[in-house]
Write a structure and sequence with these properties.
A 6-stranded mixed beta sheet has the order 6-7-8-3-9-10. The protein is globular. A hairpin with a 2-residue loop joins strand 1 and strand 2. Helices cover 37% and strands 25% of the residues. It has a domain of 170 residues: Rossmann fold, CATH 3.40.50.300.
């Protein structure tokens, strides 16, 4: 990842809450450019809630999220929209429109946010679906696809506007082992070919070790982060039993410390 990492996203003293109910507090970490950054922790610890605060869906109760030095939640609406144009988001379900073909789903952000000609939009759609391993499926509807193909179609749509940052919420959830490994491989290829920074919410151990080079570990009991850094290094060096228990579930999937 280079000797001098360049900060892309800086989270400063974030508290995420629903009313008076605090989900996570005192979160501070840096996502460097071209990181594959893992937000991990057990069920119910607030991983997806933190992601919502990072992508502009839920304002933190306290703290700041900086994108290339600009504080997202303190910025004017026009500036926030400009920052969000650099985001691509893949939700757990893929969030595809069932009444649209894959080509129409991927074309939608291009139609809404650009003045591109129909011919150029069609070229981009074909290219993005090809990147996601779905060339030839342009005319298919979501109901005609497997779970893994739906996730990859959602990824193609997330890439439509050439985002500099991709956010994935449980990209491997519900996938069979082969499809999950294909998704991991695709994530690595996207980082390397597009130069994108990637932030992933996941609890899947194999994916964490296969793709992650940086991370934050959230704990539901403490309601804060209790570790951060390269997941492989955490497995080897963390003295916190909560971190080690999480990272050694199904010990056959984890690299030996």
């Amino acid at each position: 990842m280079g000797k001098n990492p360049e900060p892309h996203i800086v989270v400063q003293d974030i508290t995420m809450a629903y009313g008076d109910r605090v989900i996570q507090k005192d979160l501070s970490f840096t996502v460097n450019r071209k990181d594959i950054f893992i937000i991990m922790g057990g069920s119910g610890c607030g991983k997806s809630t933190l992601l919502r605060g990072m992508v502009g869906l839920q304002e933190p109760a306290r703290g700041a999220v900086l994108y290339e030095g600009t504080s997202f939640w303190e910025a004017e609406e026009k500036e926030r929209q400009r920052i969000m144009r650099n985001f691509g988001v893949l939700y757990q379900s893929g969030a595809l429109w069932s009444s649209m073909t894959l080509a129409e789903n991927v074309a939608l952000p291009l139609e809404e946010h650009t003045n591109f000609s129909r011919g150029l939009i069609n070229e981009i759609v074909f290219f993005k679906l090809s990147l996601a391993g779905l060339a030839g499926f342009e005319a298919y509807y979501p109901s005609e696809l497997s779970g893994g193909m739906k996730k990859r179609a959602g990824l193609a749509r997330a890439m439509a506007l050439d985002p500099r940052i991709l956010f994935f919420d449980e990209p491997s959830a519900g996938l069979d082992p082969v499809s999950a490994r294909l998704m991991d491989r695709l994530i690595l290829e996207l980082r390397d070919s597009l130069g994108a920074t990637i932030v992933i919410v996941t609890h899947e151990l194999e994916s964490i070790f296969a793709v992650g080079n940086n991370s934050v570990f959230l704990d539901a009991g403490a309601k804060t982060m209790i570790a951060g850094g390269d997941p492989k290094a955490l497995l080897e060096k963390s003295g916190d039993p909560r971190v080690r228990v999480f990272l050694t579930r199904g010990a056959e999937s984890a690299p030996a410390p």
